[in-house]
């Protein structure tokens, strides 16, 4: 079974716990937590993750800055990014997606749709990797 490494970058311990609980339903998922954008940046640049769930409003470094820094790193281009935030404005969504987020979800998050959405994103990522391997 393929294991997926998922980084949860969220300043709220309660929200990290809720996301972790929801993602336990994702088969083969290994979860790692980061408490703010700077902590998240340290973790993604020193380890491999298939996907990062990133909040926008955080102290030290916000999620949008983190996304822009991740997308500048060639070694992190394939990592999927899902924004999970209370910011529901169309402009916030467009900005996050233009910076390189793959998906933008607003809180409160429902567990079943979240797991289904992440399963689809991870499957699409795996299919693209497999296709690239066949093509090379």
What structural keywords apply?
136 residues; Rossmann fold; five-stranded parallel sheet; 5 helices
Architecture per CATH nomenclature, i.e. the level-2 architecture: 3-Layer(aba) Sandwich
Question: How large is the count of helical segments?
Answer: 5
Shape: globular
Structural class: alpha/beta
Largest sheet: 5 strands, parallel
Percent range for helical residues? Answer: 40-55%
Please tell me how large the radius of gyration is. 14 Å
**Number of extended strands:** 5
SSE order, as H and E? EHEHEHEHEH
% residues in beta strands: 15-25%
Beginning-to-end CA distance, first to last residue: 24 Å
**Which residues form runs of ≥5 with pLDDT under 50?**
none
Overall description:
- The protein is an alpha/beta fold and 136 residues long.
- The protein has one domain (4-128): Response regulator (Rossmann fold), CATH 3.40.50.
- The chain has helices spanning 13-23, 37-46, 63-72, 90-99, 111-135; strands spanning 4-9, 29-34, 51-54, 80-85, 103-106.
- Helix 2 runs parallel beside helix 3 (63-72).
- It is globular.
Task: Compile the SSE list and pairings.
Elements: E1 4-9, H1 13-23, E2 29-34, H2 37-46, E3 51-54, H3 63-72, E4 80-85, H4 90-99, E5 103-106, H5 111-135
Parallel strand pairs: 1-2, 1-3, 3-4, 4-5
In short:
The protein is of the alpha/beta class and 136 residues long. It contains five helices and five strands; from the N terminus they run E-H-E-H-E-H-E-H-E-H.
